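Hello Y.,

Per our agreement to keep a running log of every chain we model this quarter, I'm adding this entry. I've kept the format consistent with earlier entries: sequence first, then predicted structure.
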Amino acid sequence: MKNIITFVIGLIFGLGLIISGMTNPDKVIRFLDIGGIWDPSLMFVMFGGMAVAFVGFKFVQNKSQTVFDDTIHLPGTTHISKELVIGSLLFGAGWALAGFCPGPALVALGAGYKEAFIFVMAMIVGITIHYHFLKA
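Predicted structure for the entry above:
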């Protein structure tokens, strides 16, 4: 039952990304191009996501178990490290250049976008490099 519920939630999330336009790299790049032909529509998607995340974090912040009896692991610190800043800058630059971030890229890959394939392969290379060479 856990796998079925997880699949349905993932399916709803993926459909939401498709409907909102987050899997369309051109739409994302237009959103990030505030000096050119700016498309602010994804701002509403982000605000909606932040609202859902806020409610979700408030719901789980004093819990130790999920509804499936798995342990909840929330960050215990708000320390801003050099690695966090560098990673955030790389993430933002990659998002602006490619028009994808990891979640929408995986959904677009499932939908058959070749640009998503290239992005996901680059993402896997970056994860592998970090894991094997830069992991502290």
